[in-house]
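Entry type: protein chain
Record version: 2
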Amino acid sequence: MTLAVKDASSGLPLMLSCSHVLARGGEGARKGDTVESPVKPLSPLGENVVGSLTRFTVLDRDASDNQVDAAVAEPANGVEISNDFAGIGRISGIRDLTQEDAETLKDLELQKVGFVTGPLKGTMGNMHISTSLVYHELTGDPILDFTELVELNCLSREGDSGAAVLDTQTPARIVGMNIAGKADGTCLFTHIQPVFDCLKITL
């Protein structure tokens, strides 16, 4: 889970993560599909149910401009979610880097809280990366084209998808969501505000 969020209309709590994590990139996914954590591939479906799929983006194999890889799920009864990060504390809000000037963003230090790599700090690089990403989670391992990704010079490994990217202020603010790593392991993330706008959610 990237963050605990709310439906902008109803106010109901939701879990945010990548579409390729919660919804197989939208291919064959349906509202109400079971979400498990941790996933046990060899066990019966439903052993570790934490919620049900609510909304998701569909990753387009033919598009040259995929931007948002995100989905939300409604927590199951008894599953509590929060935005308290171990060692960091509760985040205070959203920071939209697209609204800041170049001087403010130069050599900006950020931190990624990855499931596999843990909390890591790095310096933000290019804010407007267009690249092709291999999606092993989708049938046939397709290569999808993305635009407007942001580079963070810290390690990202398989399993870190959906990791929150925060600034280093106290309290911290959310700036993005990790969706992939470059060939050298460098983190690539999506600005958080387009994710919120696309899925109609609030913090």
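Comment: DSSP finds three helices and 16 strands in the chain.
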